[in-house]
Amino acid sequence: MLKGLVTALHVIVSIALIATVLLQSGRSAGLSGTIAGGAEAIFGKKKGLDEFLGKVTTIAAVVFAVTALLLGLWH
């Protein structure tokens, strides 16, 4: 029964991890990234949602790793 709960938690956390990574704003590359980096230095970095999604991603990644290790040990 405990293995089933850990498996369900693992699936839910993996979906949450995918969603939070996809919702984060991407890092630009090339010339447009250079221009955006200069604008970021002048006008400041975008805060709020990106910081929240970063924290949620970190927590989800840790829970994902722990549940993966538990499931690996039970197998």
UniProtKB/TrEMBL annotation:
Compartments it resides in: Cell membrane
Any matching Pfam family: SecG
Similarity-based family: Belongs to the SecG family.
Entries under InterPro entries matching the protein: SecG (IPR004692)
Keyword Glycosyltransferase (UniProt): no
GO molecular function: protein-transporting ATPase activity
Domain of life from the UniProt record: Bacteria
Organism the protein comes from: Desulfofundulus thermobenzoicus
Major subcellular location class: membrane
Protein's recorded name: Protein-export membrane protein SecG
Biological processes, Gene Ontology terms: intracellular protein transmembrane transport; protein secretion; protein transport by the Sec complex
Alphabetically ordered keywords of this record: Cell membrane, Membrane, Protein transport, Translocation, Transmembrane, Transmembrane helix, Transport
Membrane topology: Multi-pass membrane protein
Protein's job: Involved in protein export. Participates in an early event of protein translocation.
Segments passing through the bilayer: 52-74
GO CC annotations, alphabetized: plasma membrane
